[in-house]
Amino acid sequence: xxxxxxxxxxxxxxxxxxxxxxxxxxxxxxxxxxxxxxxxxxxxxxxxxxxxxxxxxxxxxxxxxxxxxxxxxxxxxxxxxxxxxxxxxxxxxxxxxxxxxxxxxxxxxxxxxxxxxxxxxxxxxxxxxxxxxxxxxxxxxxxxxxxxxxxxxxxxxxxxxxxxxxxxxxxxxxxxxxxxxxxxxxxxxxxxxxxxxxxxxxxx
Length: 204
Hints:
This protein is an alpha/beta fold. Helices cover about 40% and strands about 20% of the residues.
């Protein structure tokens, strides 16, 4: 039996989403669960795969087993015209077998994103990632307004999930409110996963 973990699955092009993933992982670990960071490969226009099976740097590529066996999921993507990036969508499109078997039903999930402009589609991107998770029967954990940073933020942060304003050049670092909300999302996911795991244990 594997040790319970929350999967932090993301696609990042310029590093902002991967930094958010690391902050979310810190929140998960604060609750005492393992955070498993995984990414997805970029999509190539080539007909044949040319990318190495192991990335040169950063998180490993996700497998369906990483998703199947997780106790919870944090899903992250940069904004692409108000939608999730194609590489993440491509990975999710390949999860039909998990849907058919109900492998993700009842597991908690949250989402996060980064945009170059302050109103560049953060909320619609988060919603686009929530749709397939709802189809999988996952339990959505957003960010409640009991998080003071959600009220105080001058950058990213939404009740639908954590977000970040990276600036036109993509180099704006996460500010303290954005970091706080990333960690809060991770903590909330992990605490929910623990409660659900304990509930299943009592039923058994």
